[in-house]
Amino acid sequence: MDPFLGLLVLILGLGLGLLWSSDAWTRSTKLLATALVVLNPLAFVLFGVSGRMGSIEVLVLLAAGVALPVAAAIRLIRTARPTRTP
């Protein structure tokens, strides 16, 4: 496999692990943020495997690749609860 892909999966997994281990958000917010972040790479894989990846599809997926994580970050920032500090 490509080392870049492995690094991307490692960063994504670490970020989602930190998200799910935090007490700052409710379960529904964590599910929404996870779905928004994971959908775009999944769409790239599905379109890439089917062989139906034209220039328009690539541009739409790249735009979604920026918009979906930004939407997830905004949602997380707005719904964060204060956490206890030791």
Describe it for me?
The protein has 86 residues and is an all-alpha fold. Helix content is 79%, strand content 0%. The longest helix has 25 residues, at 55-79. The model has no long low-confidence stretch (mean pLDDT 81).
Chain-wise SSE layout:
Layout (H helix, E strand, L loop, with lengths): L2 H19 L5 H24 L4 H25 L7
Helix pairs in contact: 2-3
Count of β-strands:
0
Shape: elongated
Distance between the termini: 42 Å
Number of separate helices? 3
Note poorly predicted spans.
Answer: none
Can you tag this structure with a few keywords?
86 residues, mainly alpha, 3 helices, 79% helix, elongated
Give me a quick take on this structure.
The protein has helices at 3-21, 27-50, 55-79.
